[in-house]
Amino acid sequence: MSQGALPGFRDFYPEQMAERNYLMKVWRDVAARYGFVEYDGPPLEPLDLYKKKSGDEIVGQLYTFTDKGDREVALRPEMTPTLARMVAAKANALRKPVRWFSIPQLFRYERQQKGRLREHFQLNVDIVGEISAAADAELLAVAIDVMRGVGLTAADVRARVSDRRLLAAVLLVSGVAEDELAGVYGAIDKMGREPRTVTEDKLRAAIGNPDATAKLVSTLDSFGDLDAIGSRFADSPDVLDQVERMREYLRFLAALGVGEWVDFDLSIVRGLAYYTGKVFELFDASGEFRAICGGGRYDDLLSTIGGVDMPALGFGMGDVVLSELLRSRRLFPPPGRGTEYWVAAEDETMLADVMSVAGRLRAKNRSVEYALRSQSLSRQLKQAAGAGVESVVMLKRDDYSRGNVTVKTLSDGAERSMTFQSLLDSLR
Ligand code: HAM
Known about the structure:
The structure is a single chain. This protein is α+β, with helices and mostly antiparallel strands. It has two domains: 14-328, BirA Bifunctional Protein, domain 2 (2-Layer Sandwich), CATH 3.30.930.10; 341-426, Rossmann fold, CATH 3.40.50.800. It is built from 17 helices and 17 strands. The chain has helices spanning 14-33, 48-53, 56-59, 80-89, 133-149, 164-174, 181-189, 196-206, 210-219, 226-232, 237-255, 301-306, 319-328, 351-363, 377-387, 397-401, 420-426; strands spanning 37-38, 44-46, 64-66, 72-75, 98-102, 105-107, 119-128, 157-163, 262-264, 278-284, 293-297, 312-318, 341-345, 368-370, 391-395, 404-409, 415-419. Strands 1, 5, 6, 7, 8, 9, 10, 11 and 12 form a nine-stranded mixed beta sheet that branches. A five-stranded mixed beta sheet has the order 14-13-15-16-17, with helices on both faces. The protein has a three-stranded antiparallel beta sheet with strand order 2-4-3. Helix 6 (164-174) runs antiparallel to helix 11, helix 7 (181-189) runs antiparallel to helix 8 and helix 10 runs antiparallel to helix 11 (237-255). The longest helix is centred in the first third of the chain and has 20 residues, at 14-33. It is elongated and about 95 Å long. The two termini are 51 Å apart. The mean pLDDT is 95. Bound molecules: histidyl-adenosine monophosphate. Histidyl-adenosine monophosphate binds next to strand 7, strand 11, strand 12 and helix 13. Residues 78-80, 108, 110, 116-117, 120, 122, 124, 126, 272, 291-295, 314-318, 320-321 line the site of histidyl-adenosine monophosphate.
């Protein structure tokens, strides 16, 4: 019996590989356009790296084992802790702000569901060493430009942005206690995916003070409206300060030309524990798919992991949801041109001549195939058509001994006789 891949793991047949390569090319091109440089780290890391700061959700999904040297190790479920370690280790030597990107394959033992697999490739773009909101805007613009790069528009994809400091200010001034914040974040993070009554129950469970819960519940409807938050909490300097910071960020996004993609949404919290400031997620506007991308500021992670105090921010964009979206919109480009030339011979004894012609065409940087065993010309032509080549270079014994070949264009069947040398000379 043949055995398939493990659940949640993919085989990439050539068609899927072409899609993956296409996506990665867009990722690399856009990241480069913003001046980010590529790095990578190890796929296997010490388990402790994730236990420290990733948060319970990811730690519960780790592929982890004890290696032969008795080390507790884990396949990387995300890139951010590795990045934090790498940058912290060379913090003094690096030009700041650090603008790095990477495309790791990541592993999480997820519950099987649409848009979530047990391995995925994730574009990671991060900036380290800059506190200005200009850096936050720059980062989100990269994610949005990737959307443009694959042919999506602001009608297809929305960027929802928030700031944990603004949410914290709203919660604290509403009467939520400092040590209840994490629990409340959890409830609010899931708000968009759950009925309101479930969210309210969770808030009641997480918050000790019933007045605070009531105040918060009455604010939930304003979570998508920055001005409304500003007026509701007009007597709280902490909230107003954060509202102003959010406005500045939105102005920067508009200046970068991506403003029309962005919605303010205070319910965006992000599941990972290390975020400290602005956070964002990209979703398809129809609400059909899971998050395309998520990220934000994590100003304390480098000091937790590497002992250096450097602000940082970044995002991860997986290939799974984005590919589902592109397939559903038929936005993947048609398969690229395959082989350019097929070399065929009318005479079954000419295989070595065919190989020599193929070799010289390849030396001119042309892609070339031929039948790997002698066979009739009609079968060779059939194979050439099946391979989708543009032209067949045909060798006829007498002609070829005088240095001539016949080039047949498959689209119109036209044949031209020429010296092989002139064919080579015509190829730059
Ligand atoms: P994350 O939200 O866990 O963030 O993942 C980011 C994106 O990766 C998701 O929006 C989704 O597209 C994709 N993704 C995550 N898990 C899976 C999965 N099991 N299957 C398919 N796709 C998945 C992070 O990982 C942060 N480390 C991102 C970051 C970078 N923050 C700062 N820098």
